[in-house]
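If your schedule permits, I should be very grateful for your opinion on a structural question. I have a record of one protein: its chain in single-letter code and its fold written as discrete structure tokens. Kindly check, if you would, that the fold set down in the tokens agrees with what the sequence suggests. I remain grateful for any guidance, and I place the record below:

***
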Amino acid sequence: MSAVPEDIAADFILEAQEILDRLGEQLVSLEQAPQDGDQLNAVFRGFHTLKGGAGFLGIQAMVELCHAAEETLGMARSGQATLQAHHFDAAQQSLDYLQSMLDSVSAGTEPGYAPPELIAQFDVNGPATPAAATSAAAGASSGELITDDEFEALLDQLHGGAAPTVVAVKKDDGMISEDEFESLLDQLHGGAAPGAKAVAVASAPAPAPRAVAAPAASAASKPAPNKPVAEAEHTVRVDTKRLDAIVNLIGELVLSRNRLKTLRARLHDEELDRAVSTLDIATARLQSAVMRTRMQPVGKVFSRFPKVARDVARSLKKEVELELIGAETELDRNLVEALADPLVHLVRNAIDHGVEMPELREAQGKPRSGHVRLSAQQEGDYVSIEVQDDGAGIDPERLRQKAREKGLIDPEAAARLSSEECLHLVFLPGFSTKQQVTDISGRGVGMDVVQSRIRELSGQIQIQSELGRGSRFMIRVPLTLAILPTLLVQAGEDVYALPLARVMEVLHAPNTSLGWFDGRAVLDRKSHTLALVDLRHWLDVEPMPSSLLTIVVLQAGEARFGLVVDQVRGREEVVIKPLPKALRGLRGYAGATLIGDGRMALILDVDGLRTHHD
């Protein structure tokens, strides 16, 4: 690869990653419907494209593995073989090796070869014979039409370890262009009708280039440019660092706009009011346009889960159907990438600890095959993602008992937990109900890491479960991490920001309506009792006597609690900034920002406030 320009290698790595992401899902679909010719062609083209690019870059390990898969898929396309379960196992395993090879190429190291036993697993009729090229040459000398397999053998010479051979396609008026030849290859690899796949090869003395006669339709007129080529002319690939820089500048512009809106309310100048209103509209439009450039569909993450579900289910000897909903829902690029690992963990756990063995499901009157649903949908400024299974469910009493046995919670606190609150014990560090350690995480193993990751994304995760009916993990994250809608509240002279997604309502209550339970303040709301946290007390600020309390009701997991504040200043979009070094690691703080009046406001971590209350 040393002789290949870096930009070409980078383009290959990007394209190869996209192909690998698609192949996992396509292989699962093909395994479920082996007679689907379109899906078979798509999988074949994926491996063929990878082999061609790897051959051009001299990545022989990838060429060898892709060639083995391509040979078997090609025989299935021509009806000479039927794909078996071990072929699909080999293809899925090959994706893992290809990913490892691609990672090595990205890191600038030499990729290792796939094990010979994996290559052998692709064989259909035993070791391949080197007769393809010979028969192709024979066909050329006799002037007869060669078969698809013989032409593929010629392509292997182009893309494999042999020295590159120049292939020219002859027209009545001379040589055709590379684009025209690529169009012919597209026809050969699934685009054209079966009758159009035969290609005549004209004899030519070595070492002159072989000439392939073009179909009559191609010789008559020059084909129009392919649609992808036209679309590429309207697309610009931009370094993500540049996008991030633009987003940061938009954030600063939003802060300046908020500052001007505050001054406008104070100065009461009509001309200033009109100017700021125009700036406000333009800033909002610019902000929206820039954010859209960073948006990606969550399908970019979802596409890897059919392979994940298949591999986990087969290793556990379970039967599982995975349903994907809302893959077109868009999220900030950084969020899409950050959600990948937590979602993989949740899907693996749903199959491992959620879905029962087929025999047990049958005995319980359930279908043998378990059902796991991964869905996404937009809700205002937030996106909700759910992982749901129809398995055994989670026993809250067992969680309570395990937490006590492991010393993760004292018996008195455990006894006070409701069934819904017991479910969230799985997020405690070191918690697990797994009886035996396996290479697949049990429900609870690493769940504290999942929750921490979601919190880092300014989101939250909740659990619902019913014994015998299944479990449901619900994640809610903002559309973007750059700008956060908040509710500004005040305690003393300082202003604090609460993530608006956690705010359920704001209410006022007389001081005399407070009650006390287990030494803590509560508010009786007829339908339920609302636990209270006084922000002044939490901040260790002198309490201010008041006959009327202002309470912000916040959602934390399955529970709600009220935060007592001095006043609510209103909603404001803020730009999240890292905490000052002196405050990093302190519980209850999620970040900092500048508000409209130019002051710094700390963004409060709702879960940290609730933990303090508990």
About this structure: The chain has four domains: 6-217, 240-293, 297-478, 483-613.
